[in-house]
Amino acid sequence: MAKKKKSELKGWKLIGKTMRKSLSIFRYGIKALGLVWQTSAVLTVAIAIFTLMSGLLPAAIAYVGKLIVDGVVLASRSGLISDRNLALSYVGFEALLIVILAAAQKGLNVSQSLLRVLLGQQVNVLILEKALTLELAHFEDSEFYDKMTQARSQASSRPLSLISRIFGLGQSALTLLTFSGLLLQFSVWAVIVLVLAAIPSFIAETKFSEHSFRLFKWRSPETRQQHYLETLLAREDYAKEVQLYQLGGMLLRRYRDIFDRLYDEDRNLTIQKGIWGYLLGLLSTGAFYAAYAWIVIEAIAGKISLGEMTMYLVVFRQGQATFAAALTSIGGMYEDNLYLANLYEFLEQPIPKSEGYITRGIEPDGIRFENVSFCYPESTEPVLKDISLHLKHGEKLAIVGENGSGKTTLIKLLTRLYVPTSGRILLDGVDLNDWDIDVLRKRIGVIFQNFVQYQFTVGENVGVGDVERLNEYQEWEVATEKGMAKPFINNMPKGFSTQLGKWFKGGQELSGGQWQKIALSRAFMRSQADILVLDEPTAAMDAEAEMNIFNHFRSLTKDQMVVLISHRFSTVRMADKIIVMADGKIIEQGSHEQLLATDGRYAHLFSLQAAGYK
Ligand code: ADP
């Protein structure tokens, strides 16, 4: 006995769990609704009203159908003009209802189309606003980056899709409810049978959707790979190498292989879903038609009128169609939910705000590293170890060291793209973390090795160095003069107005060295910055240009602190201070002459390069 009870209990629990799971598709409904409301309250209300109308009218139309048939039967029996006119007026009334229904459905379509555009824009803006608050570390964290890419990829369609489906489901529910109301006059049992018959299909549909929802989630890395392959194959900046190394065939094969694998999974799922859907649908259809036969029998026995029979017939037919539509909506809701879950995970990710508020230094001490060590997030291997150095105002520092020795990382810490794991960095006596981040950023001008080649005009490419003076022609002139870009810009047909890059019409491509001159000019554009950070700023320039720049470099940057990474000793030697890095540590420091006298690593590298030029 007890055993039976226990298994009964288990059975109920299982059903409860399944139902709860099935209902979880509504979880993000409220949030999506909030989003839609924020986007356009007017359109949301319009959609709600049109949905209500589209949900209620079918039952009214079915009821008028009954009045028509009963009216026709009555008029043909009585032969009275008044009965005939009444029947005709019912026909007119039905036509009117149909016209209203059509208007409601059109209205629904139009409102949804408008909302789709607005909502897509709203979600994209939300995502981009969030992206602006992120730190570099977030962009370098693949999991987080995934979330952002996924959020962006379907921003225009998913939120509205969920809303349409929720409203659609509401409409179907309303129609089915009013149909049930009509059916109730016939028998409460008919209604109960129909509801019970619907449950298996509902569960099957949600179960399969859940499955495809999981597939969707697992797949995200594969989909990303596919996107990446598409990019390699179809973007202009990769075309050169893909063609010359003849990578096309291999890349396309990989692209196909990924698809084939995904398709196999998809096909099985789709077939299974089809078969189960059909079988469980049969159950519902069986129940529908049993009830239908029952209605026919009652009509033959004269217990219900012909009009009523017609109405029930319509109710059954349309009820089934509505029901099928509702099931399809539910199918898509899982994926919509997945999207929204991902979107909100991204939007709600807490980003620690920079707490610094100091806008002035305590003393004009310059830059000071005190025992700074650093590990990249998710790595335990220190990339910088116990770095200490001091750079006074106006001093120039050069960093030398082999690839991977930590030079760029040191710059990332100095520009506060990352925070030291231990130790501290001071600027004018104040810890970098305590500086107001905007004030700090304004003080720094920087060129990274992989600086951005904006697909803007030449002038704007320079102007972005100081966004507040983005379009000031005078400033462009001064900056490009310093960056040695002026001569070739003057030779361009449209000068500063020349569009750069190949993405937009009339765009012109520059050579690597020319781009570097633009980047250098950009750094000089930031004339209010008193710290200039240059990572290999002249590596792509010809020897003469480089010489020219460094001959003037001291006068160009008289009041600025400069941190320069370079592999060219001709450049490095003019610095006041040189540090030699190896394996994350400073192994030598001093002026060019001091380091040569020490006869260590620096002297060795210098003599190697000097020998090369002999
Ligand atoms: P350098 O500029 O001297 O060539 P880097 O500072 O770029 O060297 O790199 C130092 C070390 O830090 C390298 O071993 C590199 O693998 C590692 N590294 C660089 N960037 C990252 C990153 N974003 N995440 C994890 N490790 C990194």
How would you sum up this structure in a few lines?
This protein is an alpha/beta fold. Helix content is 66%, strand content 9%.
Architecture per CATH nomenclature, i.e. the level-2 architecture of the largest domain: Up-down Bundle
- CATH homologous superfamily placement of the largest domain: ABC transporter type 1, transmembrane domain
Main β-sheet, spatial strand arrangement: 6-7-8-3-9-10
Number of strands: 10
Work out the strand percent.
5-15%
Membrane topology: Multi-pass membrane protein
InterPro entries: AAA+_ATPase, ABC1_TM_dom, ABC1_TM_sf, ABC_transporter-like_ATP-bd, ABC_transporter-like_CS, P-loop_NTPase, Type_1_exporter
Keywords: ATP-binding, Membrane, Nucleotide-binding, Transmembrane, Transmembrane helix
Protein name: ABC transporter ATP-binding protein
Overview of the molecule:
- It contains 21 helices and ten strands.
- The protein folds into two domains: 19-347, ABC transporter type 1, transmembrane domain (ABC transporter transmembrane region fold), CATH 1.20.1560.10; 383-612, P-loop containing nucleotide triphosphate hydrolases (Rossmann fold, 3-Layer(aba) Sandwich).
- The mean pLDDT is 86.
- 66% of the residues lie in helices and 9% in strands.
- It is elongated and about 125 Å long.
- The strands form two sheets. The protein has a six-stranded mixed beta sheet, with helices on both faces. A four-stranded antiparallel beta sheet has the order 2-1-4-5, covered by helices on one side.
- The structure holds adenosine-5'-diphosphate.
- Adenosine-5'-diphosphate (ADP) binds next to helix 12.
